[in-house]
Amino acid sequence: MALFAFNLTLRAQEKVEIDSQEVGNFFQRNWMWITGGVVLLVLILLFSRGGGKNRRVTTTVVKDDLGNVKTVKTTDIRE
Fold first, then answer.
1. Which of 12, 30, 54, 73 could be 79's S-S partner, Cβ–Cβ 3.0 to 4.6 Å?
2. In the structure, what pLDDT confidence band is assigned to residue 38 with cuts at 50, 70 and 90?
């Protein structure tokens, strides 16, 4: 049993070399995808906020003689 364990430790210590240029890190390999995602996110944010510039909301409140609210009407106008 001891000989078997000694044999396993010898095999487990084989030297492994890794080429660091081939592996690289995540940003070096995927910089175009990351940049494209950021640009797409910025475009979505710009276009989603751009529609509300020419918007007017009007609220009309109708009360009776005692000051109680009878109706409330909200109008949303986009120009």
1. 54
2. very high
Torsions phi, psi of 70, nearest 5?
A: -95, -50
Sequence-distant (6+) residues with CB within 8 A of 60 are 71, 72, 73, 74, 75
- Name the E strands within the chain: 55-63, 69-78
pLDDT tens string 1-21: 777 777 777 666 667 777 666
Q: Where are the domains of the chain?
A: 53-79
Residues 6+ away with beta carbon under 8 Å from 64: 70
What local confidence, expressed as pLDDT, does residue 22 receive? 60
